[in-house]
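Sample log: Threonine/Serine exporter ThrE domain-containing protein.
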Amino acid sequence: MQLFFNIILVYLGTIGFGILVNVPKRALNVGGIVSVMGWLIYYFYTQYVGGYIEANALGTFSIGIFGIVASRCKKLPVIIFNIPALVPLVPGGQAYQVMKYLATGNYTLAKSYLIQVVFIAGAIAAGFLFSEFANQLFLRLKKKISIKKKPF
């Protein structure tokens, strides 16, 4: 039941952020689904396999791939799906801890959380980079296969 509740909150949070940044209405539902798919990969990875950094990279990679597919289906730019879908993976809790420990003077814990934020942000960037790389690789392979099939 807790997982179902979290899925609903991820979906609604993505829709809400999409409304704030003026995502077209026809893209809101699909953007929420893209976000839920990425968050589920993140959730199951953290629960059953490993740490947050790898989970963020895989979740962002899947958001990138699903966002590309959604952008082709809806004929809209991919950023319309990627940016709102990324909201559940942003390390807001760790960033808050950095500010809290800096304000209270506990610089050791602040440094530890800052390192986590930097690595998670890097994993998010790498996830998007690899999803775009996979898309470009797919398009090139598709183009080469279609060239080989044409008779001369």
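Observation: Residues 37 and 63 are 7 Å apart (CA to CA).
Observation: Helices lie at 2-20, 25-48, 52-74, 79-86, 92-104, 107-149.
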